[in-house]
Amino acid sequence: MPLAYFGEEAALPEDVLEIVDPGFSTADAEQVRLQFQGDLTLDFQDWREVPVRVVFREAIGFRWADEQEWVDGVRNDVTYRVQGSPWLATLARLCGEDAGAFQHLRLCFNACGVLDVVCRSFEAEVGDAPSGSAGG
pTM for this one? Predict the structure, then answer.
């Protein structure tokens, strides 16, 4: 898997990003909506105007940024798994959970912002059919 570094302090563990294929595209997405009720639900329209729904199971943290500074080698239209995330470790500790059971994902929506989420797993539906799922 390709790895990239995010931010100026490339040696920090939180900056190591691995591109993942979640079964959907974040490029040129529109109408992004989030809903949180234990699980985090993300709805948006992809570049083909096809509806996408992603459910992040047992999300213990998430954050949205409208703007993001990009560095060379980091794409702004893909999904990354953040390797060695201190944010994940902190959230798991605060929740009394095992950090190894969770993953930190960074979804880069080049048209509107960046979503970071820490969850156990996620499931995606593109159009009317499930497109896949990923465990912890």
Answer: 0.83
Report pLDDT digits (tens) over 26-48. 999 999 999 999 899 999 999 99
Q: How far apart are CA 31 and CA 51, in angstroms?
A: 10
Distances (CA, A) of 28 to 32, 47, 108, 117: 11, 5, 10, 20
Task: For strands 79-83 and 16-20, give the pairing.
Answer: antiparallel
Contact 58, 36 (CB under 8 A): no
Cα dist. 30→14, 27, 38, 109, 136 in Å? Answer: 28, 9, 24, 9, 27
Report d(CA 30, CA 48) in Å as an integer. 10
Spell out the alpha helix ranges (H) of 9-135.
86-95
